[in-house]
TrEMBL record:
<dbReference type="GO" id="GO:0017004">
    <property type="term" value="P:cytochrome complex assembly"/>
</dbReference>
<protein>
    <submittedName>
        <fullName>Cytochrome c-type biogenesis protein CcmI</fullName>
    </submittedName>
</protein>
<dbReference type="InterPro" id="IPR051263">
    <property type="entry name" value="C-type_cytochrome_biogenesis"/>
</dbReference>
<keyword id="KW-0802">TPR repeat</keyword>
<dbReference type="Pfam" id="PF23914">
    <property type="entry name" value="TPR_CcmH_CycH"/>
</dbReference>
<keyword id="KW-0677">Repeat</keyword>
<dbReference type="InterPro" id="IPR056413">
    <property type="entry name" value="TPR_CcmH_CycH"/>
</dbReference>
<dbReference type="InterPro" id="IPR011990">
    <property type="entry name" value="TPR-like_helical_dom_sf"/>
</dbReference>
<keyword id="KW-0201">Cytochrome c-type biogenesis</keyword>
<feature type="domain" description="Cytochrome c-type biogenesis protein H TPR">
    <location>
        <begin position="2"/>
        <end position="96"/>
    </location>
</feature>
Amino acid sequence: MLNDGETAIGAFGRAHALAADDPAAAFDYASALVRAGDSGQVRMGELLLRDLHQRQPNSLPVLEMLALSAVRNEDYPEAVAALQALLARLPEGDARREAIVRQLAQAQQQAQ
């Protein structure tokens, strides 16, 4: 029996195949790959996210997933860049800012 991660990857992969031009389907598939995939799947998810970021540079969810992917790959300079871009786009007073500042500090420390 498949675990939940494999099931999600399969389901979102089929949805993405049926609607390859749909950014939401691509994001859902990329998210499943980054969150639940093995290293090759995480890399594929990252490539999808990079493509989405080029098409939607101000998308907060895409930037969040790019940061998560970079942390999972221990690519801390990339995580720092994604978190800084995310922080720059969040409005003042956004509840997520504090958590992102903490994540950014951790990524900066790891990048040294």
